[in-house]
Every structure is written in C-alpha cells, then in structure tokens.
Amino acid sequence: MAFLNALPGAVAEGLIWGLMAIGVYISYKILDIADLSVDGSICTGMCVCAVLIAAGVPAWVSMIAAFLAGALAGTLTGLFHSALGIPAILAGILTQLILYSVNLTVLGGKPLIQISAREYPLLLNMSNNPHAILMAVAIIAVVIVLLWLFFYTEVGLTLKSTGDNPDMSRAQGVNVKRNKIVGLAISNGVVALSGALLAQYKGSANINEGRGAIVIGLAAIFIGLSVSMKVKPNFVVSLIGVVGGGIVYYVIYNVVILLGLKTDYLKMFSALLVAVFLAVPYLKSAYFTKQKSLRAVNPSSKKEEGGNQDA
Length: 311
Hints:
Blueprint: H1 2-30, H2 38-54, H3 59-83, H4 88-106, E1 112-114, H5 129-151, H6 154-164, H7 166-171, H8 176-202, E2 204-206, H9 213-226, H10 235-258, H11 266-297, H12 300-310
Antiparallel strand pairs: 1-2
Helix pairs in contact: 1-5, 1-8, 1-9, 1-10, 2-3, 2-4, 2-8, 3-4, 3-8, 6-8, 9-10, 9-11
C-alpha cells in the first residue's frame, strides 16, 4: 500500500529526471562527450526559474529563461573544450564550479528560495501528482518533437556525424568545434529546462540541488536503452526509452527507500545501479561472443542435436 501511494510521485519525478536524461543523452550518446557540467546547469535552471517566478514572471517565460541560461552554460563548456583545447571532462568540471557561484548570485546569496504553489501559479507541483504527470508528459512530448525536427535538419545531421566520426566530418568540411559548442548548448539547455520543472514540482530551488545529476542521467539512459540491445532504435524511440529509464530509476529508488535503506547510502545505491546497467551491454556482448566461439569450435554439436531431433 505504501508503494502504491508513493508510485504517482515516483512517476512524476522520474519524468522530470527523464527530461534531464535527454539532455545527457545528447552530449553522451550523440556528441560522445562526457559532460559533467550538467550537475551545475540543472541547478541553474532551478534557480533562474524560481527567482523569476518569485518576481512575478509567468512560469512558462521563466522556463524559457532557464533553458537559455542552461544553453549559455553549455556554450561555456563548449568554448573551454573546443576553443581552448581543455579536455571535455575538465571543461565540464570548470563550468560546474563557475555555475556554483553564478547560482548563488542568482539566489541573492541565499542557499534556498521557496515558491509555494499556494502563492504562485506553477505549472506543476507535488501536491497534485496526476496533473504533474500530465504536464510533464506534455512538455517532454514537445521537447522530443522539437529535437526530432532539429536533428533531421542539415545542422542536426552534421551534429550527429560529429559525434559518430569527427575526423571524417572535418574532412567533409564540417565545423566540428562549432558543432560541439551548439550540441553542448542544446544539451545543457534541456537539462536546465528539467531543472525549471523540478523547482516547480518541489516548490523550491536549493543551491545544493543537482549534485550527482549526471549519475541519474546515465542511469536513465542505460536503463532505457538496455531493453533494446538487439535492435537499434530510432532517435525518437531512444528518447522515449531514456524518459522511461528515468521513471524506472525513480520507482526503484522509492522501493529502496520504502525497504528502509538509510539516506546516507542513496548516492552509493545510485552509483551501483548505474554500474549494473553499464555492465549489462558488455556482459550480453561477452555472452553472445562466447556462444559464437563455442559453435565455431564445435560445429558438429548443432548437427547432432538436429539429428537427434530427426531420430
């Protein structure tokens, strides 16, 4: 009964983090860049959205502003990496550190700002989970459609080629450095947009929010994509799978909490869950490779089985 009561909240929050995982998918899977700045940009989205809503700005305008703020953060990471030659992981860490000061400044030096649904017209909040789920699904659907339209334009296709084979793309005259900056801007913009939804859902923005967001994002990606190992899904199906992975992650997360795991161990649980789903593709590949090797070494076993069946 406790699990059923907690399920709508887990689904709602899983959808929001699934949107964040879409942003991580763009950088990690499409651009092939491990971008750690998302831990800061999701908090930036929360802070910008919460401060603007508290100032009387409509929620949807605040969300657009949060997206743009996240895009600026991603642009900074891209410039560090592409223009200055800093490795992607270090560039993300530098942006993350910068964003901590930026987010604190946005909050006016305070570690927390609250935006209660009773005082402000929010698009969603945790006091009404069914409505929050519907609103999150609608926003995610719009984001997926827009990304699908963009990534099948000429610019979007060159972004994909940049991640698949940067050397070949460069030889074809593609501006790889510019594409990385644009891709990281879009990625962090989507992450910040999820932060804006999370701030409204929780009714607050905390300077410490977002720590470990990359772990949740990777967990959602590998949970969502591990179910389609044999058949490569198309772009839209992959994004839907990533969102589904976010929901599964938070349902498991809530089950673990209900089982009585201490909150001190939740980060460790998240990391181990990611490790498990990271290992699944490798273990499956190793298993099928071993089976093929055994058939190649002993091809007669299959014929004997067929002969026995005929007999």
